[in-house]
Amino acid sequence: MTADLMLIWPELILTIGGLITLMLGTFFGDRNVGLYQLSSLLTLAAAAAAVVALFGIETTVFSGTLSVDSFGGFAKLLIYAASFVCIIVAPRFFNGGMRAEYPTLILFAALGMGIMASSRDLMTLYVGLELNSLAAYVLASFMRTDERSTEAGLKYFVLGALASGMLLYGISLLYGFTGTTDFAGIAKVLGGELNIGLIFGIVFVLAGLGFKISAVPFHMWTPDVYEGAPTPVTTFFATAPKVAAMALMTRVVIDAMGPAVGAWQQIIIFLSLASIILGAVGAIGQKNIKRLLAYSSINNVGFMLVGLAAGTQQGVEGVLTYLLVYMLTTLGAFLVVLQLRDVDGNQVESIPALAGLSQRRPGLAAAMAVFLFSLAGIPPLFGFWPKYLVFEAAVNANLVPLAVAGIVASVIGAFYYIAIIKTMYFDDKSDTEFPKGGGAIVEDAVITASALWLSVIGYLFIPVLAVLSASAAAVLF
Amino acid sequence: MSGFPILSLMLAVPAIAAIACLFVGDKMSRFVALGATLATFVLGCIMWAQFDIGGAQWQFQELHEGIFGRFNYALGIDGMALMLIMLSVFLMPLCILASWDAIKQRVGLYMAMFLVMETIMIGVFCAQDLLLFYIFFEAGLIPMYFIIGIWGGANRIYAAFKFFLYTLLGSVLMLIAIIAMIHEAGTTDIPTLLNYDFPVQMQTWLWLAFFASLAVKMPMWPVHTWLPDAHVQAPTAGSMILAGVLLKLGAYGFLRFMMPMFPDASGQLMWIVFGLSMIAVVYTSLVALVQSDMKKLIAYSSVAHMAIVTAGLFAFNQQGIEGALIIMLSHGVVSAALFFCVGVIYDRLHTREIDRYGGLAVNMPAYALFFMLFTMASIGLPGTSGFVGEFLSLAGIYEASSWVAFVCTTGIILGAAYMLYLYRRVVFGELTKDDVKAMADLNPREWTIMVPLAAVALWMGVYPESFLAPMRGDVTTVVARLAPAKPAGDAHLAAGKPKAAKPHGEPAHGSSHAGGVQ
After folding, report:
1. Considering CB atoms only, which of B109, B134, B161 is closest to A379?
2. Is A46 exposed, middle or buried (0-12, 13-18, 19+ CB in 10 A)?
3. Which of A92, A224, A300, B429 stands the most exposed, by the fewest C-beta atoms within 10 Å?
4. ipTM over 0.85
5. Is the overall model pTM greater than 0.80, yes or no?
């Protein structure tokens, strides 16, 4: 038991750090933003350091319910990094309305996501997922006086509960027909004859997880929640939980359902193509930048699923690289959105108001253009590389029709990305002014760094990324 | 061959200058851009001088393995690439000069986009790694999208979107083919892939995927419709670079990838290329005849010229391919010059309507002279660059198929018709309109652009050997690679029995082996 505890330092640190942060907020009041922000950031940094320290250990703890491996480590590092940024940018956004619950909830969500990414058992999977979800529901409605935020929270909760129900139903079927909740045990049974109960179990589990990664047709909540939630929270939703849910889905599909390729592959292919196409088509008419980025995330999840559909180690490497690049791009894009404030300091989310942004804020527009071209996967921007990897995995796994359909649909996606660039660069200046706000050095630094990294520099990191993602993916095979 | 990384330097100079242009302000950026493009041109000239004709197939090679992990930073050129790079670096300073006064808004960004474009074009032609090539090939969309969209004409947004999405749709299919090739051959190295024999069945699919992409870039009928829109809306320099260099990417891809890598498929599917080329030559020439917009007319004439290029390439013989290459170079210079000619009068009257002009020979004699020269070069008058290319490629096509040659030759006649008709309406006739009367002749800046273009068009027409010599070895390699897949032509040429050579009977032409039996 003690030996097991030594291996879950990241989770322990997050738990203790979250509680400390909560206490600090209670004792010193919500005004002392710096104090509890610092404690939450330190917690995340310490947890990340613990993950790095544990890198290279491949084992399971607590009777095989939780794994300690580099796959989980990779996902956790991304999750913690995204959480870190989302905590940094929050005080400026809430503008005095910041409360200690915000970093606390993010820490607990990060804890839940860490468990999701390393679970090896249907029960730990569910515990991690719910810990994350409960924190997320509250975060979505964090601005309790704002109607849209409350609506987003409620919608997220109702649909999330429905999805959890489906997931649980699937879990119960899988347990009932295999007699175990252990991934390895399930895989052993699925290697034999499949009966209708098992297939239903697989379908329901994948449907529940599909909700979490917001794959079509379980995506309906995404645009509304992204639009309604406070922007730092949306930034969080678009990055960390995506990584966690995608890592979880990969683990479930490869580890638990691996032998039943015929059963899950078609489902993943359907989810993938539907997400790519609907994510692209749905985005075209959007007038709100946050809604648009929601559709963009649906679209990108579709591309990740192309890699997962291949079901090979190469595919999983592609998914992991995709997650990293997608997370950086999305963080950057949302930070740009955070900077869009008019003269009165109000957030501007309407796309037509961005007209002529390149003349008012050339740097910001250039960074946004880099992020959008990168999301569209146009080389030489680095967003091309993960797309290449997932399509390569699909082609090598003889899924050429999927690759062709996916890549052709990516052209539809390119349309709306370049439409925003058109608004920023080609259109005449709109009436909205975007004065440069003060005190955003960190935001500027993150935006600049990720834009530069995504422009061309990222290609120099391919060897490092390849080693990391290969060592992480190898765990599952 | 020295180990000096001249190709990397040529990529770096415009790239660094592009970044500089964003920060130095509008006035200064013009000089930075001009300086950088001239410096790159000088580097190009040094490279041409150092190029060892008849030496190794690949020269100036640079290879850094592993810095991109899965693919390499591998550069290198053969004669074809050398000539196309020369074309790009030659046109670039002229484009910058052409936009000197015409562009007044956001000059820094404009110059940066052109310099990025230059880096990308050099990169496309010298990449020796398949993925590196694809990255450069696709990257060209971004600066062109901005150039058309920001500084274009009234309908620029439609044109920019159409250009972007049309060409993107084509190239993504090529990406799938590239992935399949890398998987099959296990390497991304282009020289290795050139000699790799893909299974015949697979070749057909790969060929079709590449064709989907390159036919759009080329552009071939019926996927050419983005070109007139893009040309009409683009600023003058944008049209110059689009017609001058970007249109050559398609033909370069045919010659570099499709033909040597998939020779069997090329042999089987050559009828598609011939068929589309024949339609394009006749159809787009006829369309050009009825245009009332000067730029649109020249854009359609580009499609017709490119169709002769594709037909010449797929003749699978030395003359056909050499001729196609000379047309590419000649068209690069001449169409850029013609677009500049349109730009000159557009800057003065702000319309491209042919009917708004007339009688320019009276008040703009120098302009009329240059315009005449380029018109003739476009038609293919002997002594100009157009003649050499068209004659060689048609001779090659004739050997492959006399019917295709017959149809393509009508393109020359129609070409003469629409170009002369354009020239008559713009330059000759009565000088009646007051605003046209007020137009001044060429200024020194415009002279500076016209003279080099005219000099090269004449040079290529009088002594094409300078341009053919570096490419000959590469063409021979491609022809040899294609030989097993080459169908028999219908023109059964037989060498005559020449009388004993007279001492003064030297062949006048550099490429004297034209017309031989193969």
Report:
1. B134
2. middle
3. B429
4. yes
5. yes
